[in-house]
Specification:
The chain is mainly α. The protein has one domain. The protein has 9 helices and no strands. α3 packs antiparallel against α6. The model has no long low-confidence stretch (mean pLDDT 82). It is found in: Cell membrane. InterPro entries: L-PG_synthase/AglD. It is a multi-pass membrane protein. Keywords: Cell membrane, Membrane, Transmembrane, Transmembrane helix. Pfam families: LPG_synthase_TM.
């Protein structure tokens, strides 16, 4: 979380995982990269599925059917791509997908609690859809900073929700994430100290 949050694009933690696993276990970099890619893919799929599910409560019956077809097609298409390009992961595809869905649901719950703390007691579906959409866009930003707030600001022009409260809740979510991500610096300092000790032993 520390690397993902404080390195632009949200790929820092992924790059660190590849580096540390290759260094400590000599695992193949190509296979590690494909594993990380599939991890990201399952997360993206989970977000898209949850956006479609949330949208169903706002759409007409015909569009609900269309959303359901899109959701099933998206899951099956992603599974097909995984099976063809990364066959080694096809046996755990649905397991990782369900874990990704659970993680995103937990983030949604946290965001709803933030909204409640700011006095919002209704219309959560629009907030959730916008929040999930911002999670996708945050992949190309500096840990999502500014993206969520901007998206909520723009969405307020088209949907009926409180702009200042939604932006505040989004900013609070970013601050909370940053706070807990900063705890990772403890592990970073610990690893740096271990590295210095190893170098001393080698020089001796």
């Amino acid at each position: 979380m520390f690397y993902n949050f404080f390195i632009p694009g949200g790929i820092g933690g992924d790059a660190y995982k590849i580096y540390i696993l290759n260094k400590n276990f000599n695992w193949n970099i190509k296979k590690l990269t494909s594993a990380i890619f599939n991890d990201r893919l399952s997360g993206l799929l989970a977000i898209c599925v949850l956006i479609l599910i949330s949208s169903m409560f706002l759409l007409s019956a015909q569009l609900v059917v269309l959303s359901l077809i899109m959701m099933i097609t998206g899951v099956l298409l992603t599974f097909f791509i995984t099976k063809k390009l990364f066959s080694i992961y096809q046996t755990i595809f649905f397991k990782t997908f369900l874990i990704s869905v659970l993680i995103q649901i937990l983030q949604i719950v946290c965001f709803i609690f933030l909204l409640k703390s700011l006095g919002i007691k209704e219309n959560y579906k629009i907030y959730i859809i916008t929040f999930l959409g911002s999670s996708i866009l945050s992949l190309i930003s500096f840990a999502g900073i500014g993206v969520r707030e901007f998206l909520f600001l723009q969405a307020s022009k088209y949907f009926d929700f409180n702009t200042s409260v939604s932006v505040s809740a989004s900013l609070l979510f970013t601050v909370v994430t940053a706070f807990f991500s900063l705890l990772g610096i403890i592990l970073l300092i610990k690893n740096m100290n271990l590295f210095k000790i190893r170098n001393r032993k080698k020089s001796i």
